[in-house]
Amino acid sequence: RHYLTVATPGNRAIVSCRTDYRATDAKALLKKAETIITAERPPLKMRDDPSFYLCKWCDYSALCHGTALPAVNCRTCAHSTARMNEAQPWTCELNQPAINGDQAGCDHHAYHPDLMANHAEPVNANPKTGVITFRRKDGNPIENGISGLKSREWLARSIPSNSGELEPPIEDEVRAALAIEMDVNPSSLVDGDLDEDDWGKLTQAVRKLSGFWEGDDRRCQALRAVIEQVDAAFMGLAE
To answer: For residue 18, what are the β-bridge partners?
Structure first.
């Protein structure tokens, strides 16, 4: 059986529940995990609409719906294959028989085409070198791999629109808008100095601003970052 306790910030409200072991459900979840691990393609999107509330708050929304490029590692490489083998969970079909899926990709790294749907489509591949030729949305071809544009270089070129780091002015603007909606001093959001009524106002303000900034990935991302800062500041005071 499994016992779980969940508390709101500051332990103002606590909920606990016990879940008994159910063999049928457990086996179904393990089978689902195995299907995902051994699938040749990533799972489908939860929704095609990026404004769906779960998509808007997902850390990978920019990858799924936007223009962000995936990180460069063995998991995002077209040449890696996941295996149901604890001793050798990943295999490189190009160079190294055994790899760690989390390790940084080598110079032979080529993006898995299914991860590039928002950027380009594959039009050719060289099985000897592992280089994949993509056609970008603007029609220009790119050879991705050891003898072409290396994935790290491609990622670096896209940083202005791809970076997860936010410009301070954007966060300041979002924090100010949040404070206005809540009718509190912006410094209280930074310090975590909020009472119970303020947390209710915060929830309403986030919903309102999320709707107002629908489709604006930068401000929605900044809003998520500000909320995390507020929560971290409050937890720091509680400790």
So the answer is: 3
